[in-house]
């Protein structure tokens, strides 16, 4: 999981380099209730679960980009990038709360795809207890492990390469869904994609969705948990695409200061967005305690609204947040269901 020491540089650089975009609040679009991106007759659009969850691990190798050496960990230069990816998907069988079932048969339907990026020193599988709940709600979740920011001694420098990793994973999972010999064939709505992440993975998400360097045009929604804006040297957030975003953070975050999360919220005025603040929660503790269930419900309700067109659950969640006593809600940029 993310460490305070390795994110210190991120915080300092963000304070110095994040410039206000040229767009103004007046430019924000007004959103009608979205129709979602699943066909009206699609099973996945009408059934919200809970599903059983299957799991598989797939290794994707991008031969068009290299991996830098990390002498401190004895990792050599490689002329390719390897992304071992955990896939969680709606499956047939009993819906288990505690764990997915390896190799379980896929549930009928084509489900939206959510890519999830982990924090520094973490791995994709470490987030399975959280992501399991997303898959139970009817989403295929792809959680890659990045080659240099993961595991003990993982560092932040390779974040500049991670947005392209995100796009490569999305392309690779979409290819599986279009391969008639693969078990995932026909079970992913490849035009219905969200990008998400936590901590350094949230930095990656912001770049992969909104940075001119590397914004993936396939993204229909974004989920950013405990992150900040950190422009990389060949991109800008000056004119971000109007992809709706859910931002979530604890106001007692001791790794990424809460003020930087709020700064990111303010610096993207043309983006339809909402910010859920978990009162008293920290960088990692927001996934559990009195906040965990509300965080999961917030993510699922937001994805259901943006990708499946479910307005009722989204409206109900806003009331629940305001009545919870452990969270508050801000909305801007025309995001009013």
Describe the fold and architecture:
There is one protein chain. The protein has 337 residues and is an alpha/beta fold. It has one domain: Rossmann fold. It is built from 8 helices and 10 strands. The protein has helices spanning 4-17, 43-46, 128-136, 162-177, 200-210, 258-266, 292-308, 311-324; strands spanning 52-62, 81-91, 101-102, 111-117, 140-145, 188-198, 219-225, 245-250, 273-278, 327-332. The chain has a 10-stranded mixed β-sheet with strand order 3-1-2-5-4-6-7-8-9-10, sandwiched between helices. Helix 3 links the parallel strand 4 (111-117) and strand 5 (140-145). Helix 4 (162-177) crosses helix 5 (200-210) and helix 7 packs antiparallel against helix 8 (311-324). It is globular and about 50 Å long. Residues 1-6 and 15-33 have low confidence and may be disordered.
Topology:
Blueprint: H1 4-17, H2 43-46, E1 52-62, E2 81-91, E3 101-102, E4 111-117, H3 128-136, E5 140-145, H4 162-177, E6 188-198, H5 200-210, E7 219-225, E8 245-250, H6 258-266, E9 273-278, H7 292-308, H8 311-324, E10 327-332
Parallel strand pairs: 1-3, 4-5, 4-6, 6-7, 7-8, 8-9
Antiparallel strand pairs: 1-2, 2-5, 9-10
Offer a quick outline of the entry.
This protein has 337 residues and is of the alpha/beta class.
């Amino acid at each position: 999981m993310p460490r305070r020491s390795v994110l210190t540089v991120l915080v300092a650089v963000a304070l110095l380099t994040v410039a206000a975009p040229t767009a103004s609040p007046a430019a924000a679009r007004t959103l009608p209730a979205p129709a979602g991106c699943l066909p009206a007759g699609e099973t996945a659009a009408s059934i919200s679960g809970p599903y059983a969850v299957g799991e598989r691990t797939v290794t994707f190798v991008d031969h068009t980009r290299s991996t830098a050496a990390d002498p401190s960990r004895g990792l050599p230069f490689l002329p390719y990038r390897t992304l071992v990816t955990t896939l969680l998907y709606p499956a047939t069988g009993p819906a288990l709360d505690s764990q997915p079932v390896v190799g379980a048969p896929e549930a009928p339907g084509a489900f939206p795809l959510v890519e999830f990026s982990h924090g520094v020193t973490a791995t994709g599988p470490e987030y399975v207890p959280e992501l399991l709940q997303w898959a139970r709600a009817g989403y295929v979740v792809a959680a890659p492990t990045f080659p240099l920011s993961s595991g003990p001694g993982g560092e932040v420098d390779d974040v500049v390469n991670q947005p392209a990793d995100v796009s490569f994973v999305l392309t690779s999972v979409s290819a599986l869904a279009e391969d008639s010999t693969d078990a995932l064939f026909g079970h992913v709505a490849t035009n219905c994609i969200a990008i998400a992440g936590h901590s350094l993975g949230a930095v990656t998400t912001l770049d992969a969705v909104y940075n001119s360097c590397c914004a993936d045009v396939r993204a229909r929604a974004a989920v950013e948990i405990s992150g900040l804006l950190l422009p990389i040297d060949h991109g800008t957030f000056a004119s971000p695409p109007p992809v709706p975003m859910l931002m979530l953070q604890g106001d007692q975050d001791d790794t990424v200061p809460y003020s930087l999360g709020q700064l990111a919220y303010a610096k993207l005025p043309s983006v339809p967005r909402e910010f859920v603040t978990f009162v008293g929660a920290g960088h990692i503790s927001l996934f559990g305690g009195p906040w965990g269930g509300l965080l999961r419900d917030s993510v699922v309700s937001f994805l259901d609204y943006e990708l499946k067109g479910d307005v009722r659950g989204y409206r109900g969640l806003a009331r629940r947040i305001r009545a919870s006593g452990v969270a508050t809600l801000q909305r801007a940029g025309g995001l009013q269901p």
